[in-house]
Amino acid sequence: MVNMRSAPPDTTARARIRDAAVVRFATDGFDAPLRAIATDAGVSAALVLHHFGSKDGLRDACDEHVFTQVRDAKGPVLRDRTPLTMLEALASVDAYAPLFAYLVRSLQTGGPRASAFVDHLVDDAVEYLADGVAAGTLRPSRDEHARARYLVLTALGAVLLDVAISGPATPRELMAAYLDRMALPALELFTDGLLTTRDMLDGYLLHAPDPPRPASSDT
């Protein structure tokens, strides 16, 4: 996968409009007028419609762009055996902040688009978690899809609650503050674990109506 920091920038008018729309939607919500997005991109409103057909078409392009960037950023972090990739990602707040804020805005808005967004993130998580397992940086799971969905929903739920109690902020402030509060406890929990024994897991597996197949690391 190509990390967005190493990919050459797309400077076409279509890409400029899409990128401007991501920032504008993230900041002002999806009621933001096309004329404002056109002004941000330095083009006419007619050119926006020429490239995307409608606001829905523009949102489709923004959704797909954010999906791709999130996937391409997550994959290398989970495959890499050194912390360098993760540190580079944490340092790239300015690059990721609009995507982060757009994701939050989409989830807050709800509806079919938000549901599709979550499903897409889960499907991508299954793939990059599998890459991490294959690379030896992640442990296998008894149910890879269930783990991916749990991680996505837990992360998104934490983001939405954190934003709700933190108050208004710019996309950069939002992401920087979230990372400051969450990076250490999340990495500590994922790396060192929480429980000191297997008692709770073994008890669940013993009484589960359809116990999942053990992960290969437990055999």
Give an overview in words.
Mean pLDDT is about 85; it is low at about 1-5. Helices cover about 75% and strands about 0% of the residues. It has a domain at about 60-195: Orthogonal Bundle (Tetracycline Repressor, domain 2), CATH 1.10.357. The chain starts with 12 loop residues before the first helix and ends in a 12-residue tail after the last helix. It is mainly α and about 220 residues long.
User: For this structure, what is the CATH class of the domain at 58-195?
Assistant: Mainly Alpha
Strand tally is 0
**Globular, elongated, flat, extended or rod-shaped: what is the shape?**
elongated
The total count of helices amounts to: 10
Report, as a whole number of angstroms, the end-to-end distance: 32 Å
The helix/strand series, from N terminus to C terminus, equals: HHHHHHHHHH
Tell me, rounded to a whole number, the average pLDDT. Answer: 83
CATH topology of the domain at 58-195: Tetracycline Repressor, domain 2
Largest sheet: none
Determine the CATH superfamily of the domain at 58-195.
Tetracycline Repressor, domain 2
Helix content: over 70%
The portion of residues forming beta strands comes to under 5%
CATH arch. level architecture of the domain at 58-195: Orthogonal Bundle
- Assembly type: single chain
Q: By helix and strand content, what is the structural category?
A: mainly alpha
Keywords: DNA-binding
GO molecular function, one term: DNA-binding transcription factor activity
Domain HTH tetR-type: 11-70
Protein name: TetR family transcriptional regulator
